[in-house]
Amino acid sequence: MIPTDQVIEADCISLLAEIPDRSVTAMITDPPYPNGMNLFTEEIADGLAMLYLATKKVTGHIVFFWRASDVPRPPPGWFEIARHLWHKPDSNSRVPYEAIVVWSRERKNERCRFWSIALLSLRSLGDWKPHPTQKPVQLLRYLVEAYTKEGDTVFDPFVGSGTTAIACHQLKRHFIAIERNHEYVTIARERLLMREQRAEERKQRMDDYQAQRAAPREEQRITTVLSTLRLTPRNFSVIAFNTLRRRKRRTENSKYQEHISSSGENYDMPHVRQIPRPRLGTSHLWQSAEGWVRCQSPPSWRHLPFFSPQEQ
């Protein structure tokens, strides 16, 4: 049985017999195909043959890159359900497009998609390796996520620098990656190891952050809040002052409402005008024995039934 979740240095044609039939969910690969750069000319026959040999091992979809013309036809029992297109805006080739063909055992119509993803970007520049046909990780993530589920197994007999393996590792899929070039196998293993180290560091930082949040001491809690929100001492003091001021206002308003509800005395209009902080900024006409007087609405006018406000 072929081990999973690692890059295997071997010939995919000779190693294919060790994979049980219908044991792989999908095959997502970039096989050698006729191109204008005369790359991998000796392996074009292996790339074409692998597309048909893998139909016995795959239960779901076969997804492969090919040039825009002369796309191979699926074998009997398989159907081409989609032909996506990938545009390379920073490519120097005459035809900056590649077709992404999808075969399936089920006859169904699927919407074809178009991606315009650069070969090099600020995000992928540090991950780029000296492989002539390396694909962006973002593009492979789209394909892996579209045709597999979490926990499925993806087969790539021409993994090259390991882009498919990295996409499967990020999306929690198992993979069987095969490459016979020793230089590319070394590159793929280094990329996988670097990704695993980054994931461990990210997990360790998250664990440390959760431990700081759960610390019982108040000083650690304040330090965590300040470092997370990136607040300066001046900003933090302003926020604390505003919080205390709002709390004091709520306390005074509640005391005033209790005083109004507990007292049975009649309040005249001057008392209403002397309320220190009106709740609303709208002006009303208040009726009293002195006549109509304009003032700001008090926070507890509901407790004064002998007044009848009329909004203008």
Explain what this protein looks like in three dimensions.
The chain has 312 residues and is α/β, with parallel strands linked by helices. It folds into two domains: 6-206, Vaccinia Virus protein VP39 (Rossmann fold, 3-Layer(aba) Sandwich), CATH 3.40.50.150; 231-311, no CATH class. 36% of the residues lie in helices and 20% in strands. It has eight helices and eleven strands. The protein has helices spanning 12-15, 44-53, 137-147, 163-170, 182-213, 218-229, 233-262, 269-273; strands spanning 6-9, 24-29, 58-66, 79-87, 97-104, 114-116, 153-156, 174-179, 283-288, 291-296, 310-311. The strands form two sheets. Strands 1-8-7-2-3-5-4-6 form an eight-stranded mixed β-sheet, with helices on one face. It has a three-stranded antiparallel β-sheet with strand order 10-9-11. The longest helix has 32 residues, at 182-213.
Radius of gyration: 35 Å
Task: Please work out how many helical segments DSSP would assign.
Answer: 8
Count up the domains. Answer: 2
Shape: elongated
Helix/strand structural class: alpha/beta
CATH architecture of the largest domain: 3-Layer(aba) Sandwich
SSE sequence, one letter per element: EHEHEEEEHEHEHHHHEEE
In terms of DSSP E residues, the strand content is 15-25%
Helix content, binned percent? 25-40%
